[in-house]
Amino acid sequence: MVNETIKIDQSVKDWFKLKHPGIKVKEPRFATLGVADEYKRMEVGDVVLFPASDYPANTVRCTPNTTLLNKVLEGCKWTTRVDPANKSIAVLRLS
Questions:
Q1: What are the extents of the domains in the chain?
Q2: Which of 26, 50, 73, 86 could, after both became Cys, cross-link 55 (CB 3.0–4.6 A)?
């Protein structure tokens, strides 16, 4: 396994673009609803930031495999990344 580093000034949007070049990554927005509701309303390329002070990281990361299992079985995919600049967990909808 290779250690990966990102530039200090690299935004989470830029990181998602680098790691997922086939996805048109949209401008990030902050979550205002519950975790499952935010995931459900996301479209491919959407980036939602869940502030760490308001949303438990484990809940944000585990929601697809628990609450949204039917969506996962239909082919929906998301990925997460810690976003220190915004003190949040960033979620990108992949499919």
A1: 26-93
A2: 50
pTM of the model: 0.86
What is the C-alpha to C-alpha distance for residues 25 and 1, in angstroms, rounded to an integer?
26
The answer to whether the beta carbons of residues 49 and 83 sit under 8 Å apart is yes
Q: Print burial letters for 58-91: b (CB count within 10 Å at least 16), e (below 16).
A: eebbebbeebbeebeeeebebebeebeebebbbb
What is the Cα gyration radius of the chain? 13
Between the alpha carbon of residue 57 and those of residues 18, 22, 88, the distances in Å are 23, 27, 9
Specify whether the CB–CB gap between 1 and 23 falls below 8 A: no
pLDDT digits (tens, 9 = 90+) for 49-79: 999 999 999 999 998 888 998 998 999 999 9
Task: Output the CA–CA distances (angstroms, integers) from residue 40 to 61, 67, 89, in the order listed.
Answer: 14, 10, 17
Confidence at residue 32, expressed as pLDDT on a 0 to 100 scale: 94
